[in-house]
């Protein structure tokens, strides 16, 4: 006798449907799981057997074969446990298999006592369920809030296998979860990272405001203790809040990666990811046998902060070329190609030399010029060419450090940043772009609106500074952001001049 239930796998950010077929046939007791399962999925045999027994139901002592179709899609993890258990119980008549027809999916890991444990990717599963016309989704209680963000499918928070069987048998009912509140939540960053604590560094503060307003990549260079890390950590406090579409994008990525906290159904704060300089290429850009999002995707719509930038492996940094240019990362493996979104704002911090004091007025640097050049060359020209703005962060004078007067607060800066972003969104509504950094070369020609004097200055700078075509385009994007902050309809020569001032120098 055979029966069928439905579940969903995770492939990239998608959740393709999986048919869970169970067949109970005469023969020596044996439990097989086929359909390209990985080790964790194979171990479902022991979890399912124990969960069924400990839930007070008999497990068939015959030959049990479970097929996860389609067989060409690799099945990973323990997410199919509950669906496998239901398929087996349907073959033995413990539940009516028709109650789990095409209109229902079952997702969840089983503990040995029959409780359902949470699994990653609930939002992706709920989105896929809508596309497949599924009406009911049975999920662990911890995943229900996340999945209930999606409208159009009933989410049943299922605490255990017993509760699921009782619901399907009509003895007791599981109440569907109410739709999760999708009202944007107010952000509280705390006082510790407010920009008012930044002493001095007027130019760096100005650059941070421009970078946040346009989503531009930024490099901070200065001696130890000059405030580079503090400046970088204040950036989330001046960024605009996520809108609903952006929040769902970020939540889906975090959910699939398994980094979404169970108590947070929607991520409303822009991500701020800080990978260590020993990070591998796969952890940074994603990958693996069954590719998962890396740090560049987890930072989507937010900030990727790389402290000690030259200390990252050169080959690791070179992997940033594609996402910095395209806003996405394509991971190719033998099993197929997966594309993850990676529209992030890169903020990098570095010392000017190995000892860190090459630009310090104290003269403490003992590094030879050749050693300084070698250290700075760890960041390749192509990577620097993709960084829009660079600023020196010098040591702050003692008088400013001990001054009791606070600097401008993050709230005031954020109001200007939000106003500039609103101008960008309104200007590029037809292209559905969120910020100037997202513009292509064609968009730059269409939307920048540079005055003749500005074009003339830029032309002279291209010839004098040997700027590449990419550098020219990025300079115009920064100039457009500066003009937006000043509420200027056109890009003037002064805006281009300031943008050129921040352009990284490639020797």
Report on the architecture of this protein.
There is one protein chain. The protein has 507 residues and is an alpha/beta fold. It has two domains: 2-169, Ribosomal Protein S5, domain 2 (2-Layer Sandwich); 195-395, Rossmann fold. Helix content is 37%, strand content 15%. It is built from 21 helices and 16 strands. It has helices at 39-42, 44-54, 81-91, 122-131, 141-147, 161-169, 202-214, 228-233, 244-257, 281-285, 295-298, 314-318, 321-326, 369-376, 381-385, 398-401, 410-427, 441-447, 452-465, 469-485, 493-501, and strands at 2-8, 17-25, 30-34, 63-69, 104-106, 109-110, 116-117, 136-140, 154-158, 218-221, 272-273, 303-306, 328-333, 336-341, 345-350, 389-392. The protein has a five-stranded parallel sheet. A hairpin with an 8-residue loop joins β1 (2-8) and β2. α2 packs across α3 (81-91), α7 packs parallel to α17 and α20 crosses α21. The protein is elongated and about 85 Å long. It starts with a strand and ends in a 6-residue tail after the last helix. 46% of the residues are buried.
Residue windows where pLDDT falls under 50 for at least 5 positions: none
Number of domains: 2
- Biggest sheet layout: 5 strands, parallel
Q: What radius of gyration results from the CA coordinates?
A: 27 Å
Q: Enumerate the strands of the largest sheet in spatial order, edge to edge or round the barrel.
A: 11-12-15-10-16
